[in-house]
Amino acid sequence: MKCLLALFLLFSVAASGQIKVFLKDRDTDQPIPYANLWRDNQIVASSDSLGHFHIKEGNSRTLYKISALGYETLDTIPIPETATILMAKNIIPLDNLTLKRARSNKKFKIGKLKNGDVGIVCTREALVPIVAKYFPNDGKQPLFLHRLKIKAFSSEKNRIVAIALYSAGENGKPGEPINTQNIICRFKKGHHVAEVDLKDLAIPLPENGIFVMVNFLQLEQNKQYGPTNKDWFFYEPSLDAVSNPETPDYWFFGKNGWEQSIKTSLSMQLTVTD
Question: What b-and-e string marks burial along 57-92, b requiring 16 or more CB atoms within 10 Å of the CB?
Fold first, then answer.
């Protein structure tokens, strides 16, 4: 286990048969929102904006993994029936960060925002809980991230996802995180382009490109239930994707780790500035 884990009596078992757990920062005692709870290499829950997540009462003795951007991962831990779980920050060396601000002069767009013929969602079984698009660097240096656009459909308002930025690893797969906090992207009802402002992060575009990850948060506000079977649901938004593109750039995280689809491109666009 990579960091200290403290368990305190705090909440009682919910009447619905679910256990409510509180996830907090070990040093600041602040809640940790939008973390992922894993079982058998599969996400089974996400913490909400207050750091709460729920599991079924009968699963409390199962071993889980908890991951949160900017924090050390907790591996193979049991979750008792009432608990507060403390996580330690994952310190990124200062030489991996940039303190320079983008000047926002010339802007360059990478990726296309096409209407998709495929919709990417997260199923109830969370078979594809995290997806990513690779954005290359064509050699214009130095460039800084400015804005991210995502085309998607939501059947209801207030759907949200967590955005993370990752370097490209030596094997071409997503490497290490670049930002230390989740970036929340909100979607309106209908078919729209959601925008995320990145310029204040002052993050340079790496020479070997960057992965933009979309984490489908397993929250009640993101559930879309079936029209007749209320026990069936999936998690929105539905991300637009184009099949059979010239340059496939869609990656997904499944039970076997990161895999690339050679037939799909996500409708996302990254604007960078010099």
Answer: eeebeeebbbbbbbbbbbeebebeebbbbbbebeee
